[in-house]
DNA sequence: AACTACATGTAAGAGGTTACATGATTCA
DNA sequence: TGAATCATGTAACCTCTTACATGTAGTT
């Protein structure tokens, strides 16, 4: 995963290992953490493979190592981006979506639709599980256990709704919050920009 | 983590390693996966430590190994359950909530409230990041990147809403879905039980 | 007789994290 | 001049996953 996130980050800009980390943190950092202890060794391996090249750039007394993606690296990145992810985590799916801007729109539509299909299947599973839970107990000794299941269903259905909107390039503002604090994504605030 | 999930699973029932896996899969399996390759070695280590004990039970030609939690194991489990989790993942929080049924209600209220507080702080961070994103680009080349951020915010606010309801032991049915397919958590279906 | 589920493990390795070690540059 | 940030790395360790290996019990 991190391998491809690095390649995606380098796709349009050459960066140092340090900068890559900042980019990841400010980008898909919500879904994926990258520490130096994983980035630097990985950059070494990617260099050996020929997916990136390293250029030394003098900067006063020290030398920065600036990494650039190669054609091979670009191909590998695109292969990953285009691959169907088989039952992977939401996080890894979001990591791909993060780079969909560099793909044709039809492509993004297909990928998100396919993912949504699998989510709908999974939804059926969860519903069946919920049935069992609801019936098997008196709803007293299992309140918190049930609550986690409800959270899972809620999150899943939010994600399905997200797919519906994003796959057609819809207005992100319609991704409204179901309940709780509504500050933040109001129309008023959004239209200021 | 898995260590405590095993202890929590064994809290009221003695089980084989095989059964533990099934329990985890059917329980917090949505948030946490456990393979035999992690369970069996862990049970060995827990035995050495004295947190669980193993009893052999003859069953025809073979012998089942049934694991039971000890007082030490119960104390360790409770310590984990009561500990403030510092910026951990949603999954690890849900894993704790899963076992809140064996805690006094006030305790659950406190834990969920404290967690909600941290979520609200994090929400401020995300909003700031969203501002930067919204302003820094023409909303064309960054649509999908922005969409992942919106998903993060949406998920976070869903979770905050979930906290609001669950901390006071509220009706789980109010955790309605914001958009998308609404099948499943309808009042009609729920009231059948 | 064949298949599925029960049941227990191990070995190799993926894929990280944490802490450590080091030093340059920039800015107040 | 001191602190923060920039910048690069290593070593030890941890936590699992995957695949393998083996065999029993129940069911069709």
Break the fold down into its secondary structure elements and pairings.
2 copies of one chain form a homodimer.
Chain A: H1 2-10, H2 17-26, H3 36-49, E1 52-59, E2 62-69, H4 71-82, H5 90-97, H6 105-136, H7 143-167, H8 187-191
Chain A binds a DNA duplex (28 and 28 nucleotides) through helix 2, helix 3 and strand 2.
Account of the 3D structure:
The first copy, chain A, has 193 residues and is mainly alpha-helical. Chain A has helices spanning 2-10, 17-26, 36-49, 71-82, 90-97, 105-136, 143-167, 187-191, and strands at residues 52-59, 62-69. In chain A, strand 1 and strand 2 (62-69) form a beta hairpin. In chain A, helix 1 (2-10) crosses helix 4 and helix 6 (105-136) packs antiparallel against helix 7 (143-167). Mean pLDDT of chain A is 86; it is low at 178-193. Chains A and B meet through helix 6 and helix 7 of A and helix 6 and helix 7 of B. The structure holds a DNA duplex (28 and 28 nucleotides).
SSE class of chain A: mainly alpha
**What's the main sheet of chain A like?**
2 strands, antiparallel
Number of helices of chain A: 8
Estimate the mean pLDDT confidence of chain A.
86
First and last CA, distance of chain A? 34 Å
Assembly state (oligomeric): homodimer
Number of strands of chain A: 2
Measured as a percent range, the helix fraction of chain A is 55-70%
SSE run of chain A: HHHEEHHHHH
| Strand neighbour order, sheet with most strands of chain A | 1-2
Radius of gyration of chain A: 21 Å
Most extensive interface: pair and counts? A-B, 61 and 61 residues
Shape of chain A: elongated
Strand portion of chain A = 5-15%
Low-confidence stretches of chain A: 178-193
């Amino acid at each position: 995963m991190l391998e491809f996130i690095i390649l995606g980050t380098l796709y349009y800009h050459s960066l140092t290992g340090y900068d890559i980390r900042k980019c990841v943190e400010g980008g898909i950092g919500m879904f994926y953490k990258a520490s130096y202890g994983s980035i630097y060794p990985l950059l070494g391996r990617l260099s050996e493979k020929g997916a990136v090249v390293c250029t030394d750039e003098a900067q006063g007394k020290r030398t920065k190592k600036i990494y650039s993606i190669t054609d091979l690296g670009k191909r590998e990145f695109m292969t990953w981006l285009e691959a169907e992810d088989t039952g992977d985590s939401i996080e890894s799916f979001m990591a791909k979506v993060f780079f969909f801007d560099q793909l044709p729109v039809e492509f993004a539509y297909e990928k998100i639709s396919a993912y949504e299909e699998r989510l709908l299947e999974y939804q059926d599973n969860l519903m069946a599980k919920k049935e069992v839970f609801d019936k098997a107990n008196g709803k007293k000794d299992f309140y918190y256990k049930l609550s986690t299941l409800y959270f899972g269903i809620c999150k899943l259905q939010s994600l399905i709704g997200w797919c519906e909107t994003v796959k057609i390039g819809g207005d992100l503002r319609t991704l409204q919050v179901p309940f709780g604090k509504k500050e933040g994504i109001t129309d008023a605030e959004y239209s200021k920009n």
